[in-house]
Each structure stands twice: as C-alpha cells, then as structure tokens.
C-alpha cells in the first residue's frame, strides 16, 4: 500500500459498470463519497459507461470533472457487463479493486467491510446478499439454482455468485481473462490460481430508480459459460482427457456391439444387414475415433497456446530464499 501511495496510486479502485442509470448516478456519487471518505485509505472510482442511451454519459463526465477521484470511461457501444468490468479493471490503479453495480442495490457502505476481511489475508472477498430485495420467482429462485450449480461444478462454495460487490487483489485479476458472462465466475477462476476466498454478508436494497437490466434470458448464457469455466478449470491443459475418454468409451461400445453382431452372423447365420444396431455400432466407432482425434488436435492447440505465450500452467504465491521473500 505504501508503494502505491508513493507512486501517486490509490490504495483502492472502485469499478462500476453503468448502463442507463441517469437517475441513480448523483445518489451513487454521494453514497460513495460518504462511505469511502471514512476509510483510512486513498481511493478512486471508475465509472464505465457501457453504451448508455440516456444522459448517463453526460452526468458521469460532470461527476469526473467535479471530483478528481472519479473517472468516466465511455465504451463505444453496449458490450455487456463483463466487458465493462474488464475495461474498468484494466484502467484501475489501486492495489485492491472493488467491483459493484451502479443501481444502488449494492450499498457502498459495505466496501470497508470487504476490505477489512481482505486485510485478514484473503485474495478475493465476495458479497452475499443474504436478504435480497428482488422478486422471488424471476430473480431469487433462479439465482439459488445457479449458485448451487456453479458451486457444485467448480468446487468453490459461495452463496451468491451473482452479487457484483466483490473485492480483488490486483495480481489475481492480472491472471484472469474475461469474456462472455465470465465476471461472475472470477472467484472460481481465481481459486484455480490459488487465491484465498472469503464471503461477507452485505446489504441489498430494493431498486429505487430505473429498471433492472437482468432477466431469465441470461440463464442460458450463464449455463453455457459455466460449461466453459468447467472445461478451463479441469481440462484446459489436458483436453485429451475429456475428448479421449468419451471417444474411447463410445468406440468400445461400438466395437462390442459389432463383435456381438458378427458372432450372431457367423455362428447362427442371422441377417444383420438391416438391423439398426449395426448402423449404431458403426456410428459409435466413427464418432469415438473423431473424439480421440479432436482430443489430439486440442492437445496440440493447448501446447501451442502455452508455449507461444510462454504462459505458465501454475501460479506461485510467494518464494522464500534465505532471508528474502518474493511475492
């Protein structure tokens, strides 16, 4: 932290994607200043305009011109929340980066609590909206199902993956590439890199201004991104294990079916030419061969990716040599 201050960098950066929040922004600014000024840390706020169609851009510029601790970043069009967060992370200067929504359902007063928990040695601190102020059927119930599914698939147990209010150490985000709807999976991706993760109960307010940008339509996109995350976490460096395993299984089943049909043909002189089982056996053998081939090609791509970028397949937390410790 001292190095950040000496270099003119803030201790904490707050990243907030904004999309059509003209009514909320003035209240958000006041709430942020009140909460952050009470901390014994320097701070900055990066408001990321994700292609808003109302007066949000104009209001953001006014806020940034009126207080140098605020910055307004304007994207060329609406790229989505993940892209907006990624833009904010890339421009943030703090050693700790906090992400939150702009609709004031996240309470800025909870930010010091996340930072206090991070001071205990955690790398990621996630908010948990234990008492949500959203409709049960369209928001809370799908969220509970999604949280259970994500926790089960990734092995990182959190109550509320969908809560945008999270705090990260900068070095954790440096190793995470975001796309799709991946922002909600950052704790799982960070855990794979060895990050220590904690969860803190936070306040959740009902929306007072504007309308929600989220709906049931995001469920399918989240599920597909979850499949991607599972593959990245489990098989990114050994894709032959997933493709080859299924390929060998299907090939073996097809071979046994073909062997059995051949036995019936040669031993009992049965007509197998018109049996659907014969076509299924041939199909399974061919598909199994294709899966094994896909696995080998994926192995070549993974090897090229890691070797071309000189990208390590591990993450080191720190190294001690003699009396010196490097992080």
Question: How does this structure look, described?
Answer:
- With 327 residues, this protein is of the alpha/beta class.
- It folds into two domains: 2-233, Alpha-Beta Complex (Spore Coat Polysaccharide Biosynthesis Protein SpsA, Chain A), CATH 3.90.550.10; 240-308.
- It has eleven helices and nine strands.
- It has helices at 2-6, 25-36, 56-66, 81-91, 111-118, 136-154, 170-174, 186-192, 218-235, 240-268, 276-308; strands at 12-18, 43-49, 70-74, 96-99, 124-128, 166-169, 197-201, 319-321, 324-326.
- A hairpin with a 2-residue loop joins strand 8 (319-321) and strand 9 (324-326).
- Residues 1-6 have low confidence and may be disordered.
TL;DR?
This protein is of the alpha/beta class and about 325 residues long.
Structural class: alpha/beta
Uncertain segments: 1-6
Strand percentage: 5-15%
Radius of gyration from the CA trace? Answer: 25 Å
- Report the biggest beta sheet as strand number plus sense, adding barrel if it closes: 7 strands, mixed
Under CATH, the topology of the largest domain can be stated as: Spore Coat Polysaccharide Biosynthesis Protein SpsA, Chain A
CATH secondary-structure class of the largest domain: Alpha Beta
The assembly state of the depicted protein chains is: single chain
Helical content (DSSP H or I, runs of 4+): 40-55%
Strand order of the largest sheet: 3-2-1-4-6-5-7
End-to-end gap: 14 Å
Domain tally? 2
Q: CATH superfamily of the largest domain, called what?
A: Spore Coat Polysaccharide Biosynthesis Protein SpsA, Chain A
Indicate the overall shape. Answer: elongated
Mean pLDDT: 83
- The succession of helices and strands, N to C, reads HEHEHEHEHEHEHHEHHHEE
The CATH architecture category of the largest domain equals: Alpha-Beta Complex
State the total count of DSSP E strands. 9
Number of helices: 11
């Amino acid at each position: 932290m001292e190095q950040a201050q000496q270099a003119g960098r803030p201790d904490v950066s707050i990243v907030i994607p904004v999309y059509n929040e003209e009514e909320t922004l003035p209240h958000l600014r006041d709430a942020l200043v009140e909460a952050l000024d009470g901390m014994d840390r320097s701070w900055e706020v990066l408001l990321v305009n994700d292609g808003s169609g109302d007066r949000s851009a104009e209001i953001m510029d006014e806020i940034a011109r009126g207080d140098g601790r605020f910055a307004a970043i304007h994207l060329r069009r609406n790229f989505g929340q993940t892209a907006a967060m990624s833009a904010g992370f890339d421009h943030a200067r703090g050693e700790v980066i906090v992400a939150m929504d702009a609709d004031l359902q996240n309470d800025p007063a909870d930010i010091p609590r996340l930072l206090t928990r991070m001071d205990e040695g955690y790398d990621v601190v996630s908010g948990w909206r234990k008492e949500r102020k959203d409709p049960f059927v369209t928001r809370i119930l799908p969220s509970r199902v999604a949280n259970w599914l994500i926790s089960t698939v990734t092995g990182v147990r959190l109550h509320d993956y969908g809560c945008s209010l999270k705090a990260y150490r900068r070095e954790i985000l440096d190793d995470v590439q975001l796309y799709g709807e991946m922002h909600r999976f950052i704790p799982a991706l960070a855990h794979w890199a060895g990050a220590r993760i904690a969860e803190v109960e936070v306040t959740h307010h009902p929306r007072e201004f504007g309308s929600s940008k989220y709906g049931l339509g995001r469920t399918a996109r989240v599920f597909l991104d979850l499949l991607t995350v599972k593959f990245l976490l489990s098989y990114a460096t050994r894709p032959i294990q997933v493709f080859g395993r299924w390929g060998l299984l299907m090939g073996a089943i097809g071979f046994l079916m073909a062997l059995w049909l051949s036995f019936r043909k040669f031993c009992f002189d049965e007509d197998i030419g018109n049996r659907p089982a014969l076509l299924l056996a041939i199909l399974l053998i061919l598909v199994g061969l294709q899966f094994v081939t896909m696995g080998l090609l994926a192995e070549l791509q993974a090897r090229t990716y890691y070797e071309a970028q000189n990208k390590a397949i591990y993450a080191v937390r720190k190294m001690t040599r003699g009396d010196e410790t490097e992080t």
